[in-house]
Structure formats: C-alpha cells, structure tokens
Amino acid sequence: MQNHRAHPSVAIPQRSRSPAYHPPEVYSPYPFEAAAQSSDSILSAWDATPTARGPPTTLEVPERPLSRARSTFAPPTISSPELEIHRSVSQRLTVNPNRHRLSKSETVLTGRSPEDDYVARSYTPAIPGPAPSFEISPARSTEESPDSKLNKLTRELSNMTLQSEEGLNRFQNGSLDEKDEAWHSLVPPEAREAVGKREVERQSILFEVFKSERDYVYDLHVIQEVFVERLKSASPPVISPAERLQTFLSTVFWNLEQITAHHDRLLEALFARQREQHPLVQSVWDLILDSFFRSKLDYESYIEHYPLAEERHRTELNHNKSYKDFVQRCYRDPRTKKRDLVTFLSRPVTRLPRLNLILEHLQKRTESDHPDTKDLPLVLDALDGFLKSTQPGIAAAESKVKFWNLCDSLAFNKGEIIELALYNDMRSLEYAGTLARRSKSEMDWNPWYDLYVALLDNFLLITKEEKMPGGTIRRLVVSRPIPLAYLRLGSFDGPPENRKERPEEGNFLRVSHRPMYPFTVYHAFEKATRRYTLYASTEAARTKWYEALVNTKAIDDARREGNRFFVSQILDDGTFRVPGPRSGRSRKPPSGRVIHAIPFIASGGKKFMAFGCASGIFIGRQGEMFRRILSYENAKKIIVLQDFNKVLIHHDGYLLSYSLEVLARVVQYQSPASALDASLETIAGQDGAVICCEAGKVKDRTIVVYAVKGFMHTYVYALEACRPSDLGMRSPWTLQFPTLSFRPYGEPFYVPQEPYSITTLTKTIAVATDRGVVITDPQNPGGAIVSIVPDFSGAPSNSTTGDLKVRCEAARPLGLVPCDASELMVIYDTMGCYITKYGKPSRDSSFVRWEMKANSFLHRAPHVLLFCSEFIEVRDVQTGRLDQVIEGADIRLLHAPSVRSVFPLVAWRGGRDDEDGLSEQIVELVDTAEITPVTPASGAFVPLELWEEWEM
Question: What is the separation of C-alpha 763 from the centre of its chain, rounded to a whole number of angstroms?
C-alpha cells in the first residue's frame, strides 16, 4: 500500500506491545556505529527513523551542515540481505545517508550546536517534497534489526494517524468539538501505547501550547472586532468628542494591535510545526523564544500600563451611561462568551505567566536526555526574568490607580482652594491605610474613631470615610492637608493603649480590648493646634508608617531642593549683630536687628547699600566696612528714588528726604556728616504722625504716598517726585509743602480705619485697612473713595460669599497683587482671595489659606512670597499652589524691589555666635530658571578632548 501523506505513519500489529523506552545519550550513535549492537536490542522512540539505506562502509561529510528547519533526519544504516526493500514516493523525507556530527569549528561557523544537530536528526520534520521511502517485508526476515523495527513503527504510526489529519485541520481552524480538543483524541490508542505513558503526557502538554495560543489569538481579535471597531463606528458616538474618544481608545487598548500581530505570526508558525510533526511534535521552544524576544518591549509596555487601562474603563463605565449600554450590548455577542471587557484586557497580562507554567510542566515531563532539557530552561529563564522585571512597573501603575480612586473620593470644605496638584503626572500615593484617633472628650463611652490617612508624595491627608449609596466611598478631609515641607514627626515609641470594642453580633454587654500603638505628627508652624496623635493596630504597622513617612519626606526634600524657584545667596554674615548669650565682652556695640535695607547707585556707578538697624542707618559698599551714617534708630522705612537723587526715611512719625549724592560722599569721607543737614527736607510729620508710606509708579509718574493720623480721621496724601525746574502750584494745599523736590499729586483723602500698608497700582492707590482695601484715585476731583474691596454686597443672599466675608473680616489685609488684566488677589495675613477688577469676589468666592500667618508679602510674578518669622511661602498667584517653602529663624523682608533686575533682600539669624553677639545674615533671593534640555544640532562636532577623561 502506498502512503501519500505528508508525514510518516506506521501501523502496529494487534496485540503488539509498546516498545520499552530507553533514552539515548545526547550524542546518540549513528546507525553504522550501532550495527555492532545486538539485533534484539530494545527499540527507542527517540532513535532516528530509518527511511533510507546507504553505503555501509563510507561516511561522507556534506558540503554544509543541515539547517534546523529540516525535518527528521534519516541517518545511514547497514543494509540487511534478508530484507526486501521497495521504494515508494509517498514518503517526503529527503534521503541523505552521508551525515556526520558537527565539530566545534563548524558549530561556531554555522551557529549550531551538536545538540541542534541531534534535534535535526531525531525530532524535526522534513521539508515537504517527494522523497524515496522504504517498505520492509517482514516475511523475508526471521529476525529484525533495531532500525527495521523503528522503520516499522514509523510506518505503522503513519497508517494509524491517517484519520487524525482531518481532526487536526478542524482543530486548527476551530471547528472541532471542544470535548475532542486534546492530543489523545487525535491519536489512536495503539499509537499512545506505542510511545508510552510519559510521552503521552508530554505530547498532551505540547498540544496545550497550541490550543492556548489559538484561544489567546482568538480573544485578541475579539477585542478588536467586538469592542474597538464598534466603538469607533458607533452612531451616535458613545464617547464624544472625537478627541476624547481617541484618548480613551489609546488609554484602554494601548498597544494591543502590536501584540496581536506578534501572536498571529507565532500561531502560524506553531500550526505549521504541528502539521509537520504530528503526532509526535518534538519541540516548540525555538518558536516561542523567537516570538518572545520580538514582542518583549510591547508586552512590557502593555503590562505596566494595564492598571491604568482598567481604571479608565471603569471610570467611563461609572460616569457614561451610553458607554455602559454599549458594553452590555457587546457582552451579548456570542464571541465574548459572556466575559467582560476587563477579562479581555487582562489576557496579555496573564498570557506569559500561564505560558511559563505550561512550559515548566513540559520540562518536568521531558526525559533527561531529550534536547529540550537544555533548551527549555532558556525560555523559562527569559520568561521568569521578564515577569519579575515588570513587577515594579505594575506596582507603580496600581499605585497610580489607587491614587486616582483616592482623588475621586475626596471631599473638601466648600469655598477653600487647596491646590494639591493631584492630576500632575508626578503625583503618587506613597502609603495609605486606616488609623485610629482618640477623642479628647471624656464623656464619650467609646472615644475611638477610625480615619483613613493617605501619604502622597507632597501632602499628608487625614480623611474620614463615608459609605455612599451604590457602594461608593466618600472621604471627607477632616483636617487641612499638611504639606510635607511643613510636616514634622514626633514620638513613634510610645507604649500601646487599649481600645474598648463591642462585638458586632451577640452579647453587647461583652467588651473586648485591643492594643493600639500611637505615633505623633504635627505641623511645623502650628505645633500646638495641628498636632495629631494617631494609632496603628500593630507595632509592625506603626513601623511601616514611620518608614514611609521618613522615606517620602526625604524624597520630597531632595525634589524641592533641586526645583527651587528662589535661591538664597548670602551677601553678609557677621557685620550686623544682635546681643547673644556670649556677648558683652566686646568693645564694639552690636548694631541690633536689621529692619530695612535698600541698594542704590551713586554718581560714577558705585553701588552702595543702606541698612536700617535698631541703632541707626548703616551705609557702605558690599565687601567693605559699613558705617553708621545716620542715627535714626529703628527706622520704619527707607525709600530710594534713584532717578531723582533722593532717599526717604520714615522715622519717629516723620518722613524725611536726603540727597543720595551727598550721602554717598559722606560715606566715602569726601564730605563731612554735617553736609547732610543742608540737603534735608521734611516732607511730612509736622501736623501728625506718619503711619506708613510707599513709593511707586501711578500713571507713569513717580508717586510717594503716606498716611497721617489725625484727631478724628486718617488722611492719605500723595506727592509726585519732581525736579526743581518742574515745580508749579497745582492746588491750595501746595503751600503746606515747602519742598523743592515734591509737589502734590491730586487731593488728600481719608480712610475710615488706620491703614496697615499702601500699594501703588497702575492708575490708583490701594490702602489696606481693618475694613478692607480702599482703592482711590487722588486725582479724582471729589476725592471720593472708589471702592472697598472685596465688595460683599451679595453676602446676604449668597452663603459662599457670606462665608468669605466672615473670614476676611477676621483677617488682616496686607495689600493687592495683580493676577491678570481682569483679576487681582487680595493678600491677607492668613489667606488670599480673588476679586475682579471691579472689586467683586471671583472664582465662586473661594479662597486660599496660607500655612502660616504672614506679616509681609512680595509680588514677584508669577509668584507671591509670604513672610513670617520662621518661613517664606512661595505661591503661584494664579492657582494658589505652594511651590516652595524657605525655612529660617527670625526672617524679615528688608527690601521689595519694584523692578525685576533687582533682587529682594531678606535677613534672618546668621551662623555666628561669639562675643560680638549673634550675627544677622543678609541674603538675596535670586530667581531661578527652568533647565531645558539642549539637543545638539545634527552633525555637531564634539571635540575629542572632552572624552579624554573617560578613556580606559
């Protein structure tokens, strides 16, 4: 009978027993080497199948080693005179008796190992094509050699599996009944007996590789056809607009198209291998390893992104009813088999771990001398290493999902703007969990209650969970979030305290006690009022919280240090001193606290600095000795009008003016100190004490504004700086100012309360008082007050505005800063709020609370700097976001320049403590700029000497 099948088969006579399996060595003997063995030796299922006879006495080396793509190699055997050989064209194995084992040099040149050659000879199917085969007539021989027995086994297996070819094709195209999709269902019982139980198990596992890959590729196509394509073509759109739909598709389905393409190719190769080698598939590790290396990067990207994809799908499901209905319609498609989209999206995540388990099982069922014992570990090591390498990415994505869920569940108090930058790409949830707190009230039977505490990379949140209808959880922020820059750690080693608990069911009179382990955290500025003692359920949990807090704060400190918006540069540390514990023996009296400072330039371009201290005004050049030139102690303000050669000093209720040039000559010993008296002008203070003063540009004019406290009211005056040639009489009260350097600007006006500060705006003047900020135009003929801002005329009918009004009345206004052309920010000592250019509260009457109580501020666009004795807060004016915190001791704002080219001056406690006293450190706050990566131009030349230090 001729067999025209495309793979070898052998028919086994009835009642024949399965040959015992004796695995050969890795380098099995060639047939001519085995000729000396006994003819009744046990037949091995892994010996080379003899399909051709060749010259018995010669062994020729082929021109090049065979490729591993070749099928089962038929080595030469010794011819037997008792056998009658008939050629048949049904077999497709290529006859090439002249084979030899690869040498080491050939291994290097061809990239193949002796094990590869062994697999090619023993396990890999031949390439299709007509080739001679041999039929052995057992009647002509009373005793068969081992090769003839194996030839007989191969031929008879071929005959028995003729009927399984149709089943194999039906399996590969998916039309075979599910109950029949197993290797033993496609192979006759006689064949299973012929190869033995262990090989049956191995072939069944290999069959599972084919089956699982086929099902996996099927599901990947279901995702594309049932979900993606329908979502794109839905009319009306399920998700709109189109840009949002595209973002959703790219987020949820990520790079599934690339993964599908990889596995389409792998499945095609696996099916080809199965068709060639069925029923005894030798190995598939080479195909799997090749596909793995090709798809590794795509899998890494998908697996690490998967938690974000799942969360995006669930979020859309909860907030978009059209999408929910669409998904339900998709589930009714029979191809989904009632599985949800999350199951499909997780298929690439679980595919490689499942494949790894299958191959591990395959390795356990493989004989020790089979080539797969050396090859399978390569695949397993690659898969195992890859799966471990993706764990950090998965953990980071899962943490991001938990962080998003936390953000969606947070509920803040109405009206307050808390800029946590939650949706910044850099935000992350570092640690979270349930902690207990104990009520301070002694009347509570059970003073304990649970809190959900979340540690972000920039804030610590303390919330209380509430279960909402539908199973969702809302987390109410019960305490203002603490920035990590202000977070301080207290005791973490306190003894446990017992918490009384009642059982949820059963005897309510029965009370149990559970130990709780306390630890303390607090706010650096509000140490007493914002101090929290929290309780962990175990000692290990408390330790975990301590480690998380310490590590997160360290990372936050490093990040803030490397992303400072202002850097302090020391100008002086030691010239100015205050009395300290070691002072008293020095002959040089201390200067006292520095209150004000200002730089100025004299004729000739020489730069000077003036410092107002407790003992007088010191002037000098940086790097040189400073001299006390004026004896005005604790001067409240020093103003320099550089363009008009004037310096103004607010001292003891008077506003005085001196010539800058004369002052500089006195400092340089070019003029006597008495020369200053000749240039002195008393601007104000004769008719009332000057409370505060300020200078700035109003309508492109240099204006000096000051407030004078009268008997019944406080009046505000404005003077325009001018040169003597520009003087002229503009109003009747000009005669009250017999100065040669200033003339009245508009008319004086009164304010209802004592002012705190004055701010010059583009066209008007803002005066901060107890009742608000008064904005007026001195040149208004009536001198009427324009407005008091914020304007709370809508407070009675609007609860939000009413709440803001209460907060503003309890705070002290400091001034105004512009946000943009249509909005300003009112600065208070404890908060800030936004108003329109007409004075009405904006942004739904919301406000921003500072983390400390400010005594002064500085506008340095786009930031506002808030100062107190311990901290400087740098906040974004538009959003209120806290961008930087500068910490010090006894901090004072000395100079707030009105131009960008001049840096602000700040004083704080210095680093020296000796017999001269404690030093005052004078620093400049220098603006920083963001570092942008610079890409060298294409073909740019890099000098070789730049790399010399890296030469090994």
Answer: 45
